[in-house]
């Protein structure tokens, strides 16, 4: 399998509970390398752009509120099949359906406040990484 890069966000519910290191430990244990990372406060505009695909969904407003409610940690993860691997490591969107040992099973509070984001495909990974990182901020 090819070496890929995926985009990750440690969401406000996790930063609020000081879980950045705990989430990173699960990521690194799974064999993914954190090749870029920064803690930011997302603006409303950034959150609306990032989740534009969900604009028509009933939870969109709440999601934007949540993602701008506190600091997030944006990351680029690298490794063999990183996109699917990180989706596995994250677990299902709804933590009550997430498998044992996944980040969401361990730490998520609800289907909305679910601790992490990870890109769902190579095309979205490229777009999402470019929204938050310049090329020279990623050190593989
Ligand atoms: N979300 C929500 N309510 C829902 C479904 C999703 O608040 O019923 C939020 C949740 O934070 C989720 C994000 O919207 O992570 C994006 O949803 P998606 O279906 O893309 O899930 P993901 O790819 O994050 O697992």
Automatic annotation (TrEMBL):
Gene3D superfamilies: Nucleoside diphosphate kinase-like domain. The active site is at residue 117. It is an enzyme of class 2 (transferase). It catalyses: a 2'-deoxyribonucleoside 5'-diphosphate + ATP = a 2'-deoxyribonucleoside 5'-triphosphate + ADP; a ribonucleoside 5'-diphosphate + ATP = a ribonucleoside 5'-triphosphate + ADP. Coiled coil: none annotated. It holds the Pfam family NDK. Its EC number is 2.7.4.6. It comes from the Bacteria. One of its GO terms (cellular component) is cytoplasm. Keywords: ATP-binding, Cytoplasm, Kinase, Magnesium, Metal-binding, Nucleotide metabolism, Nucleotide-binding, Phosphoprotein, Transferase. ATP binds at residues 11, 59, 87, 93, 104, 114. GO terms for molecular function: ATP binding; metal ion binding; nucleoside diphosphate kinase activity. PROSITE patterns: NDPK, NDPK_LIKE. The keyword Lipid metabolism does not apply. It is found in: Cytoplasm. Residues 3-140 form the Nucleoside diphosphate kinase-like domain. Its cofactor is Mg(2+). One of its GO terms (biological process) is CTP biosynthetic process. Homotetramer. Belongs to the NDK family. Major role in the synthesis of nucleoside triphosphates other than ATP. The ATP gamma phosphate is transferred to the NDP beta phosphate via a ping-pong mechanism, using a phosphorylated active-site intermediate. NCBIfam families: PRK00668.1. This is Nucleoside diphosphate kinase.
